[in-house]
Amino acid sequence: MKIGIDIDGVLTDLNKFQAEQGKKYFKNELQFFNECAFDFRDMFHCTKEEKDEFWKKNKLNYYLKAECDKYASKVTQMLKQQGHTIYLFTNRKETNNKGMISDIYKRLLKFWLANNQIEYDEIIYCDPEKSAEDKYYACKEKEIDIMIEDQKLSAYLESNICKVIIINRPYNIGVKLPSITRLNSFETIKNGLEKLNRKKVKQHEVKHK
Predict the structure, then answer these.
(1) Domain of residue 153, residue span
(2) What does the DSSP 8-state code read for residue 29?
(3) What CATH number does residue 197 fall under?
(4) What is the pLDDT of residues 93-102, one digit of tens each?
(5) How many distinct helices (H) and strands (E) make up the chain?
């Protein structure tokens, strides 16, 4: 199979990082907090300038030290051993541009992936302003069989062309479609992937007959 895995929000828990570090950033000035929000501005009801300043101070900390799902390494290694192809997706704006700065951030990402022993075949860099659309067309072009996602819109779009596993996060509650399977973490993904693979093989056999 060809399997797509989103990085931020799937391999990492971006929501948790923003919540924990955002509370430290605002300290005693914290007036609003919504743990179910994905975007930092919605989570803390802050200005664009405050969001930009937060990420200016926390970007490298996240890119270099973000906690990786502890089962992700085992799952990606298992998938590679079974002969599957793994595509990683990211919409970090620093990696989508061209030039020396973009190359540096791409190296930081690859360093983080290597440090966390994540197996993959290719990284697909998407435009942060239209990441859902970019991921949809990339899934279509690469003929992705299963996409592991965390974003609502992306999951809905991708479900039109492939099976989707959505990682349970506070901001994607309510996403329900027959082609979308909800799982809590990579700990449960192994069984979920095997189940979807058996179903795909069965459908192929029926179609062949």
Answers:
(1) 2-20+69-208
(2) G
(3) 3.40.50.1000
(4) 888 777 888 8
(5) 9, 6
